[in-house]
Fold:
Amino acid sequence: MGSEHYDLVIIGGGIHGVGVAQAAAAAGYHVLVLEQGELASGTSSRSSKLIHGGLRYLEHGQFALVRECLHERALLLKNAPDLVRLQPFFIPVYADSVRSSWLLRAGLTLYSLLGGAGKDTRFRRVPRREWAALDGLKTTGLQTVFQYQDAQTDDAALTRAVMTSAQTLGAQLKTQATFIAAAGLEDRREDCWKIRYRQHEQEYTCTARVIVNAAGPWANEVLARIASTAKPVAVELVQGTHLVLDGKLARGIYYLQSPQDQRPIFAMPWQLGGETAGSAILLGTTETRFTGNPAEVHPLPAEQEYLLETYRCYFSETPNIRAAFAGLRVLPVPENQNEYKGKNQYAARQRETVLQTDCPGSPRLLTIYGGKLTAYRATAEKVLHKLQNSLPDKTALADTRALPLKHSP
Ligand SMILES: Cc1cc2nc3c(=O)[nH]c(=O)nc-3n(C[C@H](O)[C@H](O)[C@H](O)COP(=O)(O)OP(=O)(O)OC[C@H]3O[C@@H](n4cnc5c(N)ncnc54)[C@H](O)[C@@H]3O)c2cc1C
Structure:
């Protein structure tokens, strides 16, 4: 088959793959994304769908991550108003809550400062007279309710919108296209990869100056099929389950705390489309170590019970489960594992994205590990910055900070 040449070939059509495609196309590069299924068919359609700084990361001192995510949240609210919307978040504090009112007030103050202290970062105490309007939240033992704002999105729709933006700048996408293997091309152009992929049962090849491995939970599996000196980063896969419940939360998102291990659980309003159209509640998430084939991740009965138990602590009704889904976090294994021994070891882990290359000075292969949906654009710009010595000079076509993102079906 004919072999087309690209500046970058990106493996994976999740938020990171399409984010890099958008940034690379905006910088003027010739880009191809290979996705084995459909866009966002991996983790990027199974997240909690929050565009947020992550209030809870403050507890673990991840200030840079929170600041970056809040900055990206502000950009997305501006560039993607159809897709990313602010929501009120409510944090109820009961007599037996682990996090006290003063701790939450301090955390919310810091969160607001890291977000630039603008109007979107303000918070307040909800007056007692308004508690009855909080979607049936139990009030026995309730001491305080804080309200602040963060944003919600449809993660799969956001991924599609970023890819559409990349395509308008010239990027190409092949779905149902599975990356098979890559090796350095030694005969003609030594600084090229020869890439093999399969689409609709036919094998194709193309060449590229640089490969970006954005295969999420499959990253090390993909890396093993590339003939390079890049060392895989040791990662753990940690699954997170969400339940879709019958019901409606009219006021906003509730920031709950599991009675078992005090982990935060979100109860969020969710709008279902298609045949099951209507209002629902999205409840999640869990942290369960996963081993096996990422394609086979699925919600476990114990996770469903853990989530419902939390919901029942805060709301008197137990709604029916309409659906459930699970996604996989990619968490690099910390060098000093003992630091994280004991309670909530996954919650305390650093969530910064790791960008691993085959050669720091002039990388030709870069693998993305971990990361946040919220920070995809900032991550993509960092990826391009790392790759700049390996890519030809091009005239930029656009700036990703100002590119509008439109909802497309
Ligand atoms: C439970 C959970 C909740 C989360 N909640 C939030 C949140 O609320 N807010 C937030 O900011 N972040 C959140 N995150 C993090 C965020 O969802 C992820 O960081 C992000 O979606 C990862 O995107 P990705 O592109 O790296 O991976 P993926 O979305 O998994 O994409 C990888 C893609 O690579 C493809 N692929 C794999 N192998 C091949 C191959 N051989 N050939 C071609 N294609 C291949 C896969 O099909 C897949 O589509 C959450 C994560 C989890 C697990």
User: Anything to note?
Assistant: The mean pLDDT is 92. Residues 11-17, 34-37, 41-44, 47-50, 178-179, 214-218, 222, 240, 285, 327-329, 368, 371-374 surround flavin-adenine dinucleotide (CB under 6 Å). Residues 86-151+236-340 form a domain with the D-Amino Acid Oxidase; Chain A, domain 2 fold (CATH 3.30.9.10).
